[in-house]
Amino acid sequence: MAADIGVNKMIDLRSDTVTQPTPEMRRAMAEAEVGDDVYGEDPTVNKLESEAARLMGKEAGLFLPSGTMGNQVALLTHTNRGDEVLLDPEAHIIYYEVGSPAMFAGVQLRTVPGLLGEGAADALRNAFRGKDLHYPECTLVCLENTFNRGGGTIMVPEEMEKVYDTAHELGLKVHLDGARIFNAAVASGRDVRDFSRYCDSIMFSLSKGLSAPVGSMLAGSSEFISKARKYRKALGGGMRQVGFLAAAGLEALKLVDRLEEDHKNARYLAESLNELPGLSVDLKKVQTNIVIVDITGTGKNSAEFVREAASRGVGCTGFGPHLVRFVAHKDVSRADIENVVKIVGNMLS
Fold it and tell me: Rounded CA gap, 98 and 139, in Å?
């Protein structure tokens, strides 16, 4: 099948993880002052960790290779083996992290439907079982903001506050998988601390919409981060002269405001695809940079749709048997988005 655009051109909307580092990042990486981070002697890493803590309103920060490691270090730090952790059944931690909580922390994950939206505090209270000889010790609640499998939806600070207060009342800590927390803040017109104040620890990504080549941050109390640093080492995350990567992370934090452009492009894409025959988009869920399209009406399954789109120069991902995800990011322009709409339209004609 002939491609709709040049064979060397792919409009890649599979994820915002495909973003390329900016020229400013590359220059900062080349010029970064470095030291041995395991000894705490890398000045660029130290600067990034301090800045991450400041932005989140926490006492301390920790630089990690990935968001998955950040989440797993948080679980290890907050829990003991055999503890129970509550989270939404569609959460990234349970869906996309390779069963790591069982491998490393040795915890039991218990899913609570509705934990990432309106009424989440009631869902938490109803799910909490208290102390009983037959039950595991429940110690942690994990939230996610924005909610990837929810379509990039935002858990508003008011709902987070209710969950946070309820969790503390029940004796539980709250960890936030905030990989895209800056998307939530920008889309809401809120300071990121309006979200991060309602968790005991938070992980956020530098390598998604912020475009750093690698890295995520974990922030929390000084005591929490001191303990987390040991677990990072245990998981193989004790990096040495890693300031050149931290330098890219510092540059990435300067790109937060431009996430609004991604949100506008995602909205345009969602509204345009929703008008094509056989496609359906729940526009209420298009709140940030993620668009999930129901392709049931096309008669194709997601694997077929993704393959054909790729053959025509559009990258997207299957999100279920008849769901396809598109993610807007800085390396895709409005003109690219318009071209995607034309290509998908041609696919369906």
Answer: 22
Closest residue by Cα to residue 65 from 57, 77, 54, 73? 73
Instruction: For the beta carbon of residue 197, count every other beta carbon within 10 angstroms.
Output: 16
Query: Given pLDDT bands bounded at 50, 70 and 90, which one contains residue 9?
Result: confident
The token pair at 276 is 């094509």
Rounded-to-integer distance, Cα 15 and Cα 148, Å: 11
Strands (E) across the chain are located at 11-12, 60-64, 84-87, 108-111, 138-144, 173-177, 201-205, 216-220, 280-281, 290-294, 314-315, 317-320, 323-327
Q: For the CA atoms of the chain, what is the radius of gyration? A: 21
pTM: 0.95
d(C-alpha 1, C-alpha 3), whole Å: 6
pLDDT tens per residue across span 312-331: 999 999 999 999 999 999 99
Question: CA 349: distance to chain centroid?
Answer: 35
Q: Please, what are the domains in the chain?
A: 11-18+258-348 (3.90.1150.10), 23-255 (3.40.640.10)
What is residue 88's three-state secondary structure? coil
